[in-house]
């Protein structure tokens, strides 16, 4: 009987940080919690370096946090790096993350192993979606057209019979320790360079803002300025920070340390943190704006009200996905709170609806309660890394 202890994970960065963000989190979890060997192939080490400064963007081969990282440029380089490796050949599982095609030399090696009766388990790890069809397609197989190989589709999701979402086993304990520690909060504010802002405004609502460029941001900034409760907006360097700088008439100033105050709103641009430092920001804020896939999931584990800027797709396909999530999340809320959440999320994502910050804030106490029941239901699905391991072990039994 074969066992599963090693993984080749291929990641193509389409844009931004979500593709590598998910792969990096998964790779570390397989190493740290399962004791497995992981070789992570990445075609864009610059994006990787942004979420993990320990990565050397020039290196073909390196090891960070116990994960073997390989630069993936072309097929020839993959073949060379495989041959040069201390463990030449493939690992037990080969994953094309976000449905990226694995390189030809890898397919050839997989076919050779198949002829020996020991083909690696081959998976497409798909994008996260709350849509109903995901459970029907999860774990489906597809035979290769030429080679004696079978690929499985592994879908993350929010429903039974999906792969679930990533969650480190120590995450809840880490969050609780942070929440109980004034020193940990202090260290966070210091790291972000906002100690003074936070301490001078103890009654302000703290908001973290991670978003794509967003036409609704101008209206939100106006509402924050006029908000009865002061708002501190902490915005990591990036698209939303640039947009706020433009709105403040200070285009070009969207660098760490920039500050603006208007009415009851204070904005601070904070550093784009290494990935493991992003969670504490979500834990320490009262309301979190998140985007894409990985930060969206982290906000759910932070147990705070959150607003999702979904990755925009052509023909507004993303709005279907947005509503699929809302359809799972909001039935547990009262009609009024569900309406506040749905219309805010719709307006934030460009669907016809009114953006009403005060209405959203009024619902926040119940949204915090909902965040807890949602966490409980998500945890019943198991975490994605453990589900992947169990799935792969089943394939080789
Ligand atoms: O960056 P994203 O928008 O990523 C993506 C990509 O656009 C991708 O192509 C698309 O397919 C996918 O979304 C759905 O958003 P996401 O997924 O939240 O990834 C951001 C990562 O950056 C996440 O791992 C958290 C991390 N991060 C930090 O490490 N430090 C920070 O300061 C912030 C704000 C985020």
Automatic annotation (TrEMBL):
Alphabetical keyword list = Glycosyltransferase, Transferase
**MF annotations from Gene Ontology:** protein-arginine rhamnosyltransferase activity
Task: Quote the catalytic activity from the record.
Answer: dTDP-beta-L-rhamnose + L-arginyl-[protein] = N(omega)-(alpha-L-rhamnosyl)-L-arginyl-[protein] + dTDP + H(+)
**InterPro entries associated with the record:** EarP
Membrane-crossing segments per the record: none
Q: Does the keyword Hydrolase apply?
A: no
List, alphabetically, the Pfam families matched: EarP
Q: Which family does it belong to?
A: Belongs to the glycosyltransferase 104 family.
So what does this one do? Protein-arginine rhamnosyltransferase that catalyzes the transfer of a single rhamnose to elongation factor P (EF-P) on 'Lys-32', a modification required for EF-P-dependent rescue of polyproline stalled ribosomes.
Protein name per Swiss-Prot or TrEMBL? Protein-arginine rhamnosyltransferase
> What is the native source organism of this protein?
Ralstonia flatus
- Which lineage is the organism of this entry classified under, starting from the top rank? Bacteria, Pseudomonadati, Pseudomonadota, Betaproteobacteria, Burkholderiales
